[in-house]
Amino acid sequence: MIKISNLSICILICILITAAAPAYTLDLTDIDTKLTDIFYSTVDSNEGTTSFRSLNIPSGGRAESLGTAYTGLADDISFFDYNPAASSVLKNTEVAVFHNSWISDSALETIAATTRSGNLGMGAEIKCFYVPFTEYNVFGDRVAGSYYSETTATLNLSYNFLAGYNFKGLAIGINIKSGWRSVPDYTDNDTNQIISGSGLAQSAAAFMGDIGMLVRFNFAKYYASRDPNFHIGAALTNAGAAITGFGSAGGITVDDPLPTKVTAGISYQITRPLTFSLDFRQPLNLQTVSKSGKWSAGTGMSVQLTDFFAVLGGFLLQGGNPRISLGSEFEVFKVKMNVNYTFDLTTSVNPVNHISLSAKINLGDKGRQQTNDMVDSYYRQGLDYYAHGQLDKAIETWEQALAINKRFDPAIEGIRTARKSQELYQRLLKIQSLD
């Protein structure tokens, strides 16, 4: 009998998915015209009027595979760019690296970490977007070569209020973010000499923040699980301003609006392996509200085929440009990998561009599962006492469960029921004594 490991199965599936992708550029000229007509009303005339556009590029991973419809779901370390409230509800401490191969030889590299202590969550993320910058003179000679880059650092803090067994709490979180746009020095057209400080004058610093909320509960749930199946989230992201003019004669100015957005999202786990998500976004130009961009929307679906392998897909409509993403997620030795490919329906299918990769390391849950198991054990023991009429012992055992988790609703309800039973029993004894 031939034994096949989980890793071998994952590799085989990924090879099949890759083989199914086209290895050439597909001409979609006729389809392009039709799609342009269909989505013409969503074309944004204010697109590109804000700075630090790299903030709109997804890092990759699970969130991009779901069409960036992640504000309501936010169930792993990809939450940083979508909903800062999620760090307080994640099960595990996680560290992750992301690579996104974007257009025109550009790329986005990300490293992130998050942890949780009780209902308090925290984390940090660094993102760097870069693209080659090459300058040629009028004779076609290369005179300068470097990189244009935008780097963003994020600190996260969140708390899950009123967290319990039935109602999972109201999570609220913030991100404090700073960014730096680095423009390389360029040359003088007459002398072909690099102008010192010319790039610094066009570089910029950005200071911004995010705020988000997340509510999780059970709704139309037809399977057994301790995890809630319905999430609602909302976030305000990239609220702040950019400062330009460093080293220039004109001085420093605050005149660059950032790509601020208000987002609302939901997610619904219909069955244990099947999850849907939906996001709606409205851009905001905080300096000139009338120049705010048009809305965008995304939707995604995740299918957990096995304990270690999932297929994800998503659709994003933004600025009249529909995008489809397809990804796979698999776990090997507590490292969860994600491979994703995103393409635009209005341009071409080219597997070289829009590929993202991520690796997420699970560093454990700080004993939370062990604590939950202990609470469950006390609760089941209390049920056994209650079934045998030992109400005092049942109450005592359930109080032990509440000493570990004071918001464990089944134990609270059990104690309430047991005490009502005791009161009823005392009334019956009193009635019998009067007779």
Would you mind describing this structure in some detail?
With 435 residues, this protein is an alpha+beta fold. It has helices at 6-20, 29-38, 61-65, 198-202, 368-387, 391-404, 409-434, and strands at residues 94-101, 107-117, 120-136, 142-161, 170-182, 204-217, 230-244, 253-257, 260-271, 274-284, 296-304, 309-318, 321-332, 335-344, 355-362. A 14-stranded antiparallel β-barrel has the order 1-2-3-4-5-6-7-9-10-11-12-13-14-15. Strand 9 and strand 10 form a beta hairpin.
Notable features of this structure?
alpha+beta, 7 helices, elongated, 435 residues, 15 strands
Order of helices and strands: HHHEEEEEHEEEEEEEEEEHHH
Number of helices: 7
The proportion of residues in beta strands is 35-45%
Helix content: 10-25%
Helices, strands, pairings?
Blueprint: H1 6-20, H2 29-38, H3 61-65, E1 94-101, E2 107-117, E3 120-136, E4 142-161, E5 170-182, H4 198-202, E6 204-217, E7 230-244, E8 253-257, E9 260-271, E10 274-284, E11 296-304, E12 309-318, E13 321-332, E14 335-344, E15 355-362, H5 368-387, H6 391-404, H7 409-434
Antiparallel strand pairs: 1-2, 1-15, 2-3, 3-4, 4-5, 5-6, 6-7, 7-8, 7-9, 9-10, 10-11, 11-12, 12-13, 13-14, 14-15
Helix pairs in contact: 5-6, 5-7, 6-7
